[in-house]
Specification:
mainly beta; Alpha-Beta Plaits; five-stranded antiparallel sheet; two-stranded antiparallel ribbon; 9% helix; Zinc knuckle CX2CX4HX4C domain-containing protein
């Protein structure tokens, strides 16, 4: 896993915070009427430090069936897998995340980077 960070003048590599990493995240399951840049901003800020939100529409037409955001996330904790979206007069809806280019060191059992499922000693991950 490569986690590139800029460090300030005079800083040692040991002083640079490597606990955060940027990911492109696909957000699936969002209802059509919430498929906009503002929703991407809200979700991105919920996950970590928002870097970028792709506008899902081009000329007023959806380009793809999911939102796409780039967020800096604390990788010392389990990566969030999704959330329940409460809706009026409808049952809650599971909205889930797909991380693009997830490193091989990601554990699909507990959701933490830096080890794989076969060597995992943690309990199963929970949703955010």
């Amino acid at each position: 896993m490569v986690n590139l960070r800029l460090w300030g003048e005079g800083e040692s590599v040991f002083e640079v915070d490597h606990d955060f990493m940027e990911f492109w995240i696909q957000i699936h399951g969002i209802p059509h009427d919430f498929m906009d840049k503002e929703t991407g901003i809200l979700i991105g800020e919920m996950l970590g430090v928002l870097a970028e939100v792709e506008d899902p529409k081009m000329d007023g037409v959806l380009r793809r069936p999911y939102l796409r955001i780039r967020v800096s996330i604390d990788i010392t904790k389990a990566l969030p897998t999704g959330f329940w979206l409460d809706r009026e007069e409808l049952p809650p809806l599971w909205v889930f995340f797909r991380y693009e280019r997830l490193p091989n060191s990601y554990c699909f059992n507990c959701g933490i980077l830096r080890h794989e499922k076969k060597t995992c000693k943690n309990s199963t991950a929970m949703a955010c």
